[in-house]
Design goal:
two-stranded antiparallel ribbon, globular, Aminopeptidase, about 230 residues, alpha+beta, about 40% helix, single chain
Amino acid sequence: MHPLDPDLLLRAYAAGIFPMADGRDAADLFWVEPKRRGVLPLDAFHLPRSLAKLLRQERFELSADRAFDAVMQACAAPGPGRGRQESWINGPILDGYSQLHRLGFAHSIECWQDGALAGGLYGVKLGAAFFGESMFTRVRDASKVALAHLIARLRAGGFRLLDTQFLTDHLARFGAVEVPRAAYRASLDSALSVDGNFFALDALAAEAGRPATMVSGPISGKLIAQLLTQTS
């Protein structure tokens, strides 16, 4: 197995293409460009009342980029916590996205409970587009909290596109829709013409008394609920 070249990955994302593997132990991968693409419009995100309540209760400690490799490994692990039994994340994908993370193009969102990783997600940032790759949960509702954290972070940073690759019933509950390839490409071109700030939320957190660093400090669930309910 050979790791994915970071430059190749970035060129593929800019062209609307992403890699997958047939299984975690697969030696090869293939490139995907769906005819219909799942996207979650940031201004149409639906925050259920139960999730808003959970955020305000702050059962989880929230962070970004604190444990990227651990999040990827958890997403690649088999089991119902990822929503599928077989993972499409193989060795080359793990290595390639870890390189992207070290270069500043891939990010993770983490939910912690009692010091343990309870859930999270990861994806790729290019311009003002964020390409969601995978999420997992070990504790009930942790991945939902991670998604809300991501939405707040992307809104705060001026992002224009959240690509979910495919539409699932789970994502549809939060406002995700499916768009034709041509409409997706137009949205992608627009998002790539400007630059989103993945760490803008940390500045808002600092104003609320939380430290802002390039590796996110703890983010308040109450702050996320407040930001999302202002326009949800």
